[in-house]
Design brief:
By secondary structure, this protein is of the alpha+beta class. It has three domains: about 90 residues, DNA Primase, Chain A (Alpha-Beta Complex), CATH 3.90.580.10; about 70 residues, no CATH class; about 100 residues, Dna Topoisomerase Vi A Subunit, Chain: A, domain 2 (3-Layer(aba) Sandwich), CATH 3.40.1360. It has nine helices and 15 strands. The strands form three sheets. A five-stranded antiparallel β-sheet has the order 1-2-3-4-5, with helices on one face. A five-stranded antiparallel β-sheet has the order 6-7-8-9-10, with no helix packed on it. It has a five-stranded mixed β-sheet with strand order 11-13-12-14-15. The longest helix has 20 residues. The radius of gyration is 22 Å and the shape is globular. The chain starts with 7 loop residues before the first helix and ends in a 9-residue tail after the last helix.
């Protein structure tokens, strides 16, 4: 009957995912820009916050699962033993709604559903035409080496009434044609999630968790000729190991967190030619974090020198 209908449109538009997570007992470990990071409640082995919620877009993404979506997608993933209606009613009960009929509306958020995308990629341009993107990459310390590998991606997502919010980010394509995009306030994928491969030597391969780490490596080793594989998510560890089997030597540049150490261990066990190179950025979580720290330290040193008191020469 109509009165027993669950209004999915209103459910998506009117449910605060952060509030639902709080009522379920989950609080963010850290905040970065407009994103909140949680220990994943969808996996039992997460010790480093890898479940991300973008407050502005109202979406989530679990980097360990390479999966994300709207609050509805979260309910289906969090309560896998329930059928669709049961999961929706469970979600509504934690959001404070009745579960039947229209829900109280709140200002609509732009949506970027993973299953049925509401985004449109308008165009891509070379790095250097948008100051905000260049500033972001400069802050990450890799603007100098970014142009051959990254593009400026201009895209839009649906807003209320079918109107679209225009957005932009630095991006690169993965092996399935999806665009991995990064900006000051957003980290995600437009399209299908996959690894990214950069062709080079047929005998040596360098493996990275993320593109920013690869670019930090290129900054330090501009003459390196190895092929490069960027996982874009540790969820692609197994196919990465299979792909690495075609190479005589494999250098690993994974993060210094639990998932990174585990990934390195799996690679080392599976490939006799694999070598862990993460000692290069010892003391930092990842390669790019060290790069950012070096840039910041350099700027601080220059500022300190500029602020030294002037001493006149004595005769």
């Amino acid at each position: 009957m109509e009165e027993n209908r669950i209004d999915l449109k209103s459910l998506k538009e009117g449910t605060d995912l952060v509030l639902v997570l709080s009522k379920l007992g989950f609080e963010p470990i850290k905040r970065s820009g407009g994103e909140l990071f949680y220990l994943s409640m969808l996996r039992d082995n997460d010790t480093s916050p890898s479940f991300c919620v973008n407050e502005k877009l109202g979406i989530w993404y679990d980097h360990g699962l390479a999966k994300g979506g709207t609050v509805v997608d979260f309910a289906l993933a969090y309560w896998p033993g329930l059928d669709f209606r049961q999961a929706m009613e469970k979600l509504i009960s934690h959001a404070g709604g009745s579960g039947l009929g229209p829900l109280a509306a709140r200002p609509r958020q732009a949506e970027l559903p993973m299953r049925h995308p509401s985004y449109l990629i308008r165009e891509t341009r070379p790095i250097g035409t948008k100051a905000a993107i260049s500033d972001f990459l400069s802050g990450r310390g890799i603007l100098k080496v970014a142009p051959p590998y990254l593009r400026e991606v201009y895209y839009s997502v649906k807003k209320e009434g079918g109107k679209r919010m225009e957005l932009f980010a630095a991006g690169w394509q993965n092996g399935l044609g999806g665009w991995e995009v990064r900006s000051k306030n957003f980290k995600g994928c437009l399209g299908k999630k996959s690894m990214s491969f950069i062709s080079g030597s047929g005998s040596s391969l360098a493996v990275f968790e993320g593109m920013m780490d690869f670019l930090s490596w290129k900054l330090d080793y501009p003459q390196a000729t190895s092929s490069a594989l960027i996982l874009n998510s540790v969820a692609f560890l197994k196919p990465a190991i299979l792909m690495a089997g075609d190479y005589h030597s494999v250098e690993l540049y994974f993060d210094h967190d639990l998932s990174g150490r585990k990934a390195s261990g799996e690679f080392l066990k599976s490939h006799s030619g694999a070598v862990d190179r993460s000692e290069i950025y010892r003391g930092y979580n990842d390669y790019n974090e060290m790069t950012q720290h070096s840039i910041s330290a350099g700027k601080q040193s220059i500022t300190q020198k500029e602020n030294l008191p002037f001493k006149s020469k004595t005769r």
